[in-house]
Amino acid sequence: MKPSNTLILLCIVLIFSLIGCLAGLQTPSSPTDVATAASGVTLSLKTPTSTYTSKAPIPLELGIQGGEFNLLVPFVNVATSGAFTQLKVTDTDGNIVEPKRSITLPRTEEIFIEKERKSIQCIRGFELKPTTTQVASLTDLRKYYEFQKGNYTITLTMALPVYRDFLKKRNPEIMELEEEIKRIKKVADAHVSAADKRSAVNDLQQQIERLEKRASDIYLPVKSLLGQAALTANSVVLTIE
Questions:
Q1: Domain contains 9
Q2: Are 163 and 225 in contact (CB under 8 A)?
Q3: What is the pLDDT along the chain (241 residues), one digit of tens a residue?
Q4: How far apart are CA 87 and CA 60, in angstroms?
Q5: 37 within 8 A of 162, measured Cβ to Cβ
Q6: How crowded is residue 84: how many other Cβ atoms within 10 Å of its Cβ?
Q7: pTM value?
Q8: How does DSSP assign the chain, residue by residue?
Q9: What is the domain count for the chain?
Q10: Pairing state between β 118-128 and 110-115
Q11: Which residues contact residue 130 at a Cβ distance below 8 angstroms, ignoring those fewer than 6 apart?
Q12: Are residues 80 and 196 located together in one domain of the fold?
């Protein structure tokens, strides 16, 4: 029995839908992709309560929820106080309250990673995955701003750098295990069977896999910067009694 035209058309639609879903989970590879990739990313600014006494600490939390794409971004921009560098505070009349101490972006420590006998300049990165939320916190907003009695509005924008590629540092222990595998494969000993050699190699490869799973830190090649995604959080209103 030949499949009907309707059934064939339905299969084609399902195939292209699947391809579209898979493509949506890729990392952006060109500057024009940055705005599209970050369109689903949302910033959520909040405090435990909206009313504070004159000396009570004012903690601030920023939730960064991923969109449809994996985004490779600098660690300092999403996991440290650097997430709050573009914070703005205004009073009841809409006047900007100048900080007594600026919230600065921590220095991105650069390292060099060897790849294919080339030394590549990198910074520590973070993979912002789809539908997951990364949280950055300030323990006390009063460390940066002087508050009098009244109402204040807190707003936040972010220019989030997005990168194309990432690398991982080679674990010295993994390199030692790889050298041991090479040594075993080269052994020409009548007392060591091929089965024993395969078993030893398999054990070492399993150790390597376990170590690689634990290695979560990623590093972004400086030259793979694609651009910056412009993000805006919700406003938070505080009352100081």
A1: no
A2: yes
A3: 445 544 433 333 333 333 333 333 456 666 667 877 787 899 999 999 999 998 899 999 999 999 888 999 999 999 999 999 999 999 999 999 999 999 999 888 888 887 777 889 999 999 999 989 999 999 999 999 999 999 999 999 999 999 999 998 766 677 688 788 888 888 766 667 778 778 888 888 888 777 666 666 899 999 999 999 999 999 999 999 9
A4: 11
A5: yes
A6: 22
A7: 0.72
A8: -PPPHHHHHHHHHHHHHHHHHHHHTSPP-SHHHHHHHHTT-EEEEE-S-SEE-SSS---EEEEEE--SS-EEEEHHHHHSGGGGTTEEEE-TTSPBPPPSS---PPP--EEEEEETTEEEEEEEEEEE-TT-EEEEEES-GGGT----SEEEEEEEEEEEEEES--B-PPPHHHHHHHHHHHHHHH---TTS-HHHHHHHHHHHHHHHHHHHHH---EEEEGGGEEEEEEEEBPPEEEEE-
A9: 2
A10: antiparallel
A11: 24, 25, 40, 66, 67, 68, 69, 70
A12: no
Structure tokens at 211: 């170590």
CATH number of the domain enclosing 145: 2.60.40.2970
48 located within any domain: yes
Q: d(Cα 151, Cα 12) in Å, to the nearest integer?
A: 58
Q: Within 13 Å, how many C-alpha atoms sit on residue 121's CB side?
A: 7
Residue whose pair of structure tokens reads 């009098």 in the numeric block: 148
User: What's the CA gap between 36 and 25, in Å, rounded?
Assistant: 12
Please tell me whether residues 116 and 182 are part of one structural domain. no
